[in-house]
């Protein structure tokens, strides 16, 4: 059974721990321990929360003195570092985070009041990780806090470790997340989301990271299904809601310890807004590299752009004269304009959205002229462009260009990745009769009546379907 947990110790229990002296129970909170020691198992009976859909979310009340920020005041930090632990090493030298137990949280030194041990690096794919980061950024997008997945270094920051499994840092195998908690903000807090239990579930990972990190800001559980502070599993996609809801997991102030900080209602959106203020979104930075402004281009001309944004790039679109032509989710951001564009002046726009929905645009004008006859006709439009059937396309020295190696069509600017003699190459469509491929390429049959430019010559692509000899 998988559990998502942020745990809570009542203050009365903390007093009891103090009375136990140096015994095992007393060592569960605070106390310096070597990070490579066997983690001390936490008592699952201390978990405050309710199972829902096989998951449990809660918090550990550490007894630390939390900071209460008055609305409009400056928070201790505006950075949330979501750490997949791939850039760090454990005590055995493998990728992962090494966590030391201490009397206070310190995200700069990986010191935690609730955990110790070696947390293995996130085991999911890069694509899934990027989707998780996009979701977390969108969840915190309304607020003045920046979500990053690169270590900000020796500066105050909140940290959400999103990797490993719970047993690696002292919790039972069912726990999917845990955070320190007090009734205010815990400076430099480290929360834990054990994503390796289910590394491919983007919504669940995003929900866990959002809830556990917000516990460190002093937020409690609540009974609003669409909010990440809830235990209610549906809807699976959750965002902080701008409405009041009962604090609790089984009803208003149920169990009663959920309301130990005083309030019985919580507006998570307003609470986080009071801490960090509203966001100040910046649009993506866009540079159109090819073609240059006011240049003469051939039909089907290439548009290449560099797009960057600290919140990540969600998608990039090509528009010509205000009409959407194509959209790309990943770099390189290179497009082919339609061959059907009439001669004359046209407006070329690159529109991009970042991970939190901010929009940026960049526009140039170009003049469509005659089709190209050779590679020399393309040189004025940009570097490494070659002529294929009257249009200029990126060549072999451009990632995803004609003749470059590929494993999937999405890696090719043309969207075409062909295989011949066990070799995969990015190709461009061509007219078999005209054979308008550049030097070093030949227009070979694609097996469906058309042609594809392939490095070298001889044979065909798709011979088994069109019967041409190889």
What is this entry, summarized?
With 470 residues, the chain is α/β, with parallel strands linked by helices. The protein has helices spanning 11-19, 126-139, 202-215, 268-276, 463-466; strands at residues 60-61, 79-83, 96-101, 111-112, 117-120, 146-148, 158-162, 177-178, 180-181, 190-193, 245-246, 265-266, 285-290, 296-297, 302-308, 313-320, 323-328, 333-336, 344-354, 359-368, 385-388, 391-394, 417-420, 423-426, 429-430, 441-445, 451-455.
Task: Describe the structure in your own words.
By secondary structure, this protein is of the alpha/beta class. It folds into 3 domains: 266 residues, no CATH class; 101 residues, Immunoglobulins (Immunoglobulin-like, Sandwich), CATH 2.60.40.10; 76 residues, no CATH class. The chain is 11% helix and 26% strand. It contains 5 helices and 27 strands. The protein has a 5-stranded mixed beta sheet with strand order 6-2-7-10-8, covered by helices on one side. The protein has a 5-stranded mixed beta sheet with strand order 14-20-19-16-17, with no helix packed on it. β19 and β20 form a beta hairpin.
What labels describe this entry?
470 residues; 27 strands; 3 domains; Immunoglobulin-like; 5 helices; alpha/beta; five-stranded mixed beta sheet
């Amino acid at each position: 059974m998988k559990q998502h947990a942020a745990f809570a110790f009542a203050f009365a229990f903390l007093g009891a721990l103090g009375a136990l002296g140096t015994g095992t129970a007393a060592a569960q909170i605070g106390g310096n321990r070597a990070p490579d020691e066997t983690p001390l198992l936490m008592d699952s009976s201390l978990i405050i929360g309710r199972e829902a859909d096989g998951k449990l979310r809660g918090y550990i009340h550490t007894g630390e003195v939390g900071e209460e920020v008055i609305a409009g005041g400056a928070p201790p930090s505006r950075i949330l570092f979501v750490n997949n632990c791939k850039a760090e090493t454990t005590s055995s030298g493998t990728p992962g985070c090494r966590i030391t137990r201490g009397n206070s949280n310190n995200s700069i030194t990986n010191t935690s009041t609730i955990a110790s041990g070696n947390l293995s690096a996130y085991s999911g794919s890069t694509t899934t990780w990027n989707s998780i980061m996009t979701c977390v950024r969108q969840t915190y997008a309304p607020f003045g806090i920046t979500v990053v997945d690169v270590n900000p270094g020796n500066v105050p920051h909140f940290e959400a470790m999103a990797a490993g499994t719970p047993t690696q840092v002292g919790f039972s195998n069912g726990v999917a997340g845990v955070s320190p908690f007090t009734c205010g903000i815990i400076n430099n807090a480290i929360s834990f989301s054990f994503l390796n239990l289910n590394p491919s579930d983007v919504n669940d990972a995003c929900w866990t990271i959002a809830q556990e990190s917000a516990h460190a800001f002093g937020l409690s559980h609540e009974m609003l299904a669409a909010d990440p502070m809830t235990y209610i599993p549906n809807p699976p996609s959750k965002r902080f809601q701008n409405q009041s809801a009962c604090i609790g997991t089984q009803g208003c102030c149920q169990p009663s310890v959920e309301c130990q900080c005083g309030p019985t209602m919580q507006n998570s959106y307003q609470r986080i807004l009071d801490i960090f203020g509203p966001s100040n979104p910046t649009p993506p930075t866009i540079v159109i590299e090819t073609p240059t402004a006011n240049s003469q281009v051939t039909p089907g001309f290439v548009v290449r752009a560099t797009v960057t944004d600290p919140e990540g790039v969600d998608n990039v679109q090509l528009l010509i004269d205000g009409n959407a032509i194509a959209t790309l989710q990943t770099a390189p951001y290179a497009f082919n304009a339609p061959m059907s564009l009439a001669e004359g002046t046209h407006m070329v726009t690159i529109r991009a959205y970042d991970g939190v929905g901010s929009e940026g645009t960049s526009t140039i004008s170009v003049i469509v002229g005659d089709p190209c006859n050779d590679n020399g006709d393309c040189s004025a439009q940009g570097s490494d462009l070659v002529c294929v059937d009257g249009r200029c396309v990126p060549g072999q020295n451009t990632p995803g260009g004609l003749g470059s190696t590929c494993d999937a069509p999405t890696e090719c600017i043309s969207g075409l990745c062909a295989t011949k003699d066990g070799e995969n190459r990015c190709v461009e469509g061509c007219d078999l009769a005209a054979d308008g491929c550049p030097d070093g390429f030949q227009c070979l049959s694609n097996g469906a009546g058309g042609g594809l430019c392939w490095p070298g010559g001889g044979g065909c692509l798709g011979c088994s379907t069109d019967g041409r000899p190889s």
